[in-house]
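Homework help thread (please don't just give me the answer)

Our assignment gives two proteins as sequence + structure token strings and asks us to describe the second one. The first is just a warm-up. Here they are:
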Amino acid sequence: MKTLLRTVLLVIVLFGLALAAEEIGPLKQLSVYLAQHLQPYTTIAIALAVAGWVLLGGAFALGLRTRGRPMSEDEARRFARPGGLVGRFSGWAAGSDFEMEMTFRGYKKAIRSGSAWKNSGWWIITLGLVGLALAIYGMFGYFFVIGPPLVKLLCGGAVLYATLRTTWSLWKA
């Protein structure tokens, strides 16, 4: 019953937010402008997302190449098993993985000392973080460009909040 009430409350809040978003003048003007000039902005958003995913994939590939270790057959079988589904994996299993840890404080020290650009471990993390940021900005940006005012409000607010919180956390580290 509690879940149902929360869901109904969320729907009411989102409906109210949608009505309010439609009445915000600058947001409505931005929506009309973007609807008339979709092409350059959707291309930019898609290019950012693609570049971000390529960099993120490159960071994983670089990590596997430089810091990877082969998985045992049991580890590979556990990894390949479908989560929660009843199924059977037959045949030989192989894989590799790598693990890295980072704190904002450690990364901030690496940036200040310059090792974030020289050390291969920090370079993998830097590539991954840049790729992740580009992918997030590109994907949220795409829906910001094509969406109605409510979507613009939600996507813009989510990206702004995440950017501010990440910047604040890195600053305070």
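The one we have to describe:
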Amino acid sequence: MLLKPKSTVGNDMALLYKRFIGLENSNNLRVVYKTHSDNLYWLINADLQIFNIIDAENLLPTTIVKTIYDNITILQFQSIYFKYNGSDWVKTTNITGEGITLLSATFNNIAKYQMNKYYFAGSFDYVIKGSIEGTTTQYIKGNIMPLTALNIKHYNDSIKLAEDDLVVIDKHLYSVENPSITQKRLPRAFRIYFATLNSIL
């Protein structure tokens, strides 16, 4: 009886990082609000309708800073009104009275964009299959860089390699391409996993 291998040739373990897509907000910092009582700077998140503190050094020369006075400056967004009570922003319905100033709130969220992010998904034993190939590639015109490509196989059923995942082998970073699975029966069924790895920088 031929059993599925539990380990390979004693290489250091390969590290797998799975890709996921994160949504990020982009702010133009055109208008920020400064609360007079504590000298904090605020941006308004239009989607969540909340106020976020920003650092003063992030302000741009073109940024318009509007001063907010506690309880008497009211910001309006659509049919919602906000005021600063000295420690937090709260919704209010009291928008009239002596000394109250009503401002139209400017929301600075100008775009959402997707960003590739990675998380550590585990380590696995592997075998290099065939030869390690070296060539050059040109990702950007005039920028010629070396490229190393190798094929690996492993037997770990809990490791699922997918296109664009990252693998670290011997302190070098590789992207995953062409993952495939071969099924064997000798006599019990087991799977062998293959993938091509291309070096990144």
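TA reply:
I won't write it for you, but here's a hint about the kind of observation we're looking for: The chain has a mean pLDDT of 81.
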